[in-house]
């Protein structure tokens, strides 16, 4: 299993050949100019919520790849309004678990806001827990630190993708607490550096995580890591 980081919160998992893209935002990210969005061709696209910096390239990538798009009910309605066919949209809701060819995905709570680019209500923001061949990966989406994360502690998560940029989401210090809440010692940072309000001191972040015996990975944009 591998994960490729495309900047902001855009990550593509390769689950032994099944390509799963989360929160596609590449074209408008000033740090991701080297990434060719037309070369990204996933089988599935998951949206944690409808804010522009998580969905801007959804329609382009879906059209190029014929991917199935998965999101909470109200965000899924926006996906359909972008011209994505009904048979390529899967809507589900908080607490729901779906079975896909590569494994299962559970939709979990996130503490944030959610509207779609056309100004409509987007439902709740969410995170996802992927269970693939016995490995469990938590993608938190945009979230503040929340006590609900403690509900994930018993899942024995292998990896957690957590926002660390602050301002709109958790910052580094809260992400460390989140890692402790969910009982996960391997974290990949997301949602940082793309814009001035969320720029971080990466070395300071790495040091803070290390001091708490938690591994923090900050892959470069376009870099692939093994899970």
Outline of this structure?
By secondary structure, the protein is an alpha/beta fold.
Strand composition percent? 25-35%
Order of helices and strands: EEEEHHEHEEEEEEHEHEE
State the domain count. 1
> Please, what is the CATH homologous superfamily?
Ribonuclease Z/Hydroxyacylglutathione hydrolase-like
Task: Write down the overall mean pLDDT.
Answer: 98
Report helical residue fraction. 10-25%
Distance between the termini: 5 Å
CATH class: Alpha Beta
Number of strands: 14
Unreliable segments (pLDDT under 50, ≥5 consecutive)? none
Specify the structural class: alpha/beta
- The dominant shape is globular
Task: Predict the CATH topology.
Answer: Metallo-beta-lactamase, Chain A
What does this structure look like?
Keywords: Hydrolase. This is Metal-dependent hydrolase. InterPro entries: Metallo-B-lactamas, RibonucZ/Hydroxyglut_hydro, UPF0173_UPF0282_UlaG_hydrolase. The chain is of the alpha/beta class. 19% of the residues lie in helices and 29% in strands. The chain is built from five helices and 14 strands. The strands form two sheets. A seven-stranded mixed β-sheet has the order 6-5-4-3-2-1-14, with helices on one face. The protein has a seven-stranded mixed β-sheet with strand order 7-8-9-10-11-12-13, with helices on one face. A hairpin with a 5-residue loop joins strand 1 and strand 2. The model has no long low-confidence stretch (mean pLDDT 98).
